[in-house]
Amino acid sequence: MASGEAAGNKSIWAAFHPYLERGPLGAFFLGISSGFPYAMIGATLTTRLAQDGIDKKTVTAFTFAFLVYNLKFLWAWMVDGVHLPIIGRLGQRVSWMLLTGTLVFAAVINLALVDPSAHLGATVTAAVLVGIAGATFDIVIDAYRIETLQPYQLGIGSGMSQYGWRIGSAGAGALALVLADRMGWSAAYMACALFAFPAMIAALVLGEPARHREPTPRKGLAHSWAAIKGPLVEFFQRKGALLVLLFILIHKIGDTLANLTFRLLFDDLGFSNDEIAVFDIGVGFWAYLIGIFAGGMIFARFGLKKSVLFALILMCVSNFSFALLAAAGHSNIGMAGAIGFENAASGFGGVVVVAYFSALCDLRFTAAQYALISAGASIVGRFVTGASAGALIETMGYVNFYLLTTLLAVPGIVLFWIMLRMKMVEEPNGHA
Predict the structure, then answer these.
(1) DSSP code for 386
(2) What is the C-alpha to C-alpha distance for residues 307 and 296, in angstroms, rounded to an integer?
């Protein structure tokens, strides 16, 4: 009996030990800081604007602030190729982490001080500034995460990063809602600005990533030029690069279009802030964690190819659940079910898709290439959301709108299946 218990304890420790290694733990704290700016200009700002009486078309137009994230590849090369004075002696990644974290903190404080009902233009500017700072912070965070993790840690590290992202996003969102009802939106945003610090602290503790590789040559204009052109040249020299790029661009259209309109649906269905906090953030939080855990297990058991294909199918079906909620009306059970399924699917997909995208990066150009990939992954959906989501909802109604987002997810599934048939998807870490 004792030997059996010892063996059981050993197996449990073996299962959890990889999550407690320095790289995955660091990825967790990086994820916390990565997730919160998204919440500040996403669902939280949507709720703030809706409660201030801003019309739906204007509210959904604010999603253009997210387009800054899709343009981050334009300056991502700077994170690879520009050495900062003075603090640069701490290392390329650490120094940029401290700079961009400080900029995000300042941008969120600035957004806290504007009044949307009185100065809508200033609110737009403040939201875009948060987007610019947050996008640049993400460039550094993604590069630091990929270079800190060993190849065998990509799946686990992606999962830990997603855990952190959800805690940062949901934690900041919940804190903002609770404080807004009691102290006002300005105080709520100021408190949430503190979420910028975990990534900066993690970088100071872990130091410069051992796997970081400098573009060559190392100095002068030639160094900067290598950082600009190198990522694109290397990527497009790969076999099937255009097909991979097409998949990156279209695989998340339906999911992005749906996700950025959920708070409008909840508001129109009459859900209170407390109900949103309990179901959208509370239930969604735990469902997301379950999805991440399932994603890690299925990734380890079945490999990247089958896991990604399954994730794409789950994300497609999750949009359909919101069509059912819209048809049902104000239903706490319906909201819990839709939110739970959607977040579980997103958590699952986050692990395997992020691991796939991370494995695509050349370590000489980690920041620039991952910025290109992550920006491309949602640019089409965000543009469509900002340009037409509000009008589509008013014209089609919520039920038909979410049915449309379900159909828009199908091409990504088909394209990835084609890539598998053409043997264009490689398994990392020795999967068959």
Answers:
(1) I
(2) 9
Q: How far is CA 275 from CA 127, 263, 336, 360, 376, in A?
A: 26, 12, 10, 40, 34
Token pair 């037409």 is found at 388
Q: How far is CA 251 from the centre of its chain?
A: 15
> Domains plus CATH for the chain?
21-430 (1.20.1250.20)
Q: Is-contact 72 135, C-beta < 8 A?
A: yes
- Segment 12-42, tens digit of pLDDT: 555 566 677 888 899 999 999 998 998 888 7
Token pair 């380890």: residue: 300
CA distance 319 to 175: 26
What residues contact residue 58 under an 8 Å CB cut-off, 6+ apart? 49, 120, 390
3-state secondary structure of 122: helix
Q: How far apart are CA 410 and CA 34, in angstroms?
A: 29
Q: Which two tokens stand for residue 422?
A: 């053409």
Alpha carbon 278 to its chain's center: 22
Is residue 245 within 8 A of residue 373, CB to CB? The reply is no
Burial degree of 85 (CB within 10 A; 0-12, 13-18, 19+): exposed
pTM of the model: 0.75
Which runs of E-coded beta strand occur in 292-388?
none
185 close to 112: Cβ distance less than 8 angstroms: yes
Residue 68 CA to its chain's centroid (Å) = 14
How far is CA 317 from each of CA 149, 402, 407, rounded to the nearest angstrom? Answer: 32, 10, 9
Segment 257-284, tens digit of pLDDT: 787 788 788 888 888 777 887 877 778 8
Say which residues have a Cβ less than 8 Å from residue 102's Cβ, sequence separation at least 6.
196, 200
Q: How far is CA 108 from CA 134, 146, 260, 335, 390, in A?
A: 9, 26, 20, 30, 26
